[in-house]
């Protein structure tokens, strides 16, 4: 407070002395508009500096950055100790309280996932119901199956026809920020029971139509299936790595797209608790730099952004 009082008195004395000098020189009427502007800018600069050093760096501001155990309410009916509040665990590459990362080039605050300022935004969303009828198809392993037990719910089984289409990315090997928007859909292949899919097919769209009026047909069923399989090129890489003259893989990195670390803590508490229990290393300082998986993985593995990867690789 003494320092703040001294600064205010100094500013007032400077303005008084300047006004007296202008009166002596008889320049008051001509310089008065400029003087007012200078006084306003000086006062604005002083108040900005005063506010920054007296408020932003105070302990009151840091309360938002520190994790408050009382606010760690579990909104999803799980134990309240879902996420550890130990500050030593949350520190990453820095020693300043209230920050995950504190370095000359990067500062990431340790924000509370359940802070009271956002608690009104956290709630459980009801699952989206696309149809009240059970599914007509399913994928088991690499086999697409028509569920005959549910066929009567969509009409007479002999009256409708089903086909499937493969969905593939276009220009998947090219560097493009809009790679997710480019895809191709193959011709629809008819099936009436089961069909064996290849290991290269990852996404399947199924359509079923039934006679409606004259030669027109109506769509009675549409579904998308994602097939999780080991692709041939990936399998070949794994087999090549198992040779005696090569060192085996020893590090496993698991990443989840389209979700932030704080949202993972809020919406998937059981997963977070399992990872902590198993001793997984949490990359608290990791942040996305672009859309899609490739540029973000290249950044964390090589330290290069999208432009550098495209130019150097």
TrEMBL record:
Task: Return the Pfam families for the record.
Answer: DUF229
Source species: Homalodisca liturata
Provide the alphabetized UniProt keywords: Membrane, Transmembrane, Transmembrane helix
Classify the source by domain of life: Eukaryota
- Protein name in the entry: Uncharacterized protein
Q: Which GO terms describe its cellular component?
A: extracellular space
Q: Which residues cross the membrane?
A: 34-53
């Amino acid at each position: 407070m003494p320092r703040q009082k001294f600064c205010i008195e100094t500013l007032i004395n400077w303005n008084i002395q300047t006004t007296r000098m202008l009166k002596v020189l008889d320049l008051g009427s001509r310089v008065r508009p400029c003087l007012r502007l200078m006084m306003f800018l000086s006062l604005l600069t002083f108040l900005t500096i005063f506010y920054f050093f007296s408020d932003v760096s105070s302990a009151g501001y840091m309360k938002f950055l520190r994790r408050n155990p009382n606010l760690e309410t579990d909104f999803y009916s799980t134990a309240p100790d879902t996420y550890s509040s130990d500050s030593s665990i949350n520190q990453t590459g820095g020693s300043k309280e209230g920050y995950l990362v504190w370095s000359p080039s990067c500062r990431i605050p340790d924000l509370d996932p359940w802070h009271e300022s956002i608690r009104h935004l956290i709630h459980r969303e009801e699952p989206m119901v696309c149809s009240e009828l059970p599914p007509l198809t399913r994928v088991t392993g690499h086999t697409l199956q028509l569920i005959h037990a549910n066929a009567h719910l969509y009409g007479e089984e002999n009256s409708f026809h089903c086909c499937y289409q493969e969905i593939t990315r276009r220009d998947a090997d090219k560097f493009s920020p809009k790679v997710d928007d480019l895809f191709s859909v193959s011709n629809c292949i008819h099936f009436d029971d089961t069909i064996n899919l290849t290991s290269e097919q990852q996404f399947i769209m199924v359509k079923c139509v039934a006679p409606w009026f004259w030669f027109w047909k109506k769509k009675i069923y549409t579904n998308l299936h994602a097939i999780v399989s080991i692709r041939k090129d990936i399998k070949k890489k794994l087999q090549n790595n198992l040779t005696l003259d090569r060192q085996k893989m020893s590090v496993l990195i698991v990443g989840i797209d389209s979700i932030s670390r704080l949202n993972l803590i809020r919406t998937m508490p059981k997963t977070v608790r399992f990872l902590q229990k198993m001793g997984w290393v949490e990359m608290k300082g990791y942040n996305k730099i672009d859309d899609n998986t490739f540029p973000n993985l290249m950044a964390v593995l090589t330290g290069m952004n999208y432009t550098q990867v495209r130019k150097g690789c």
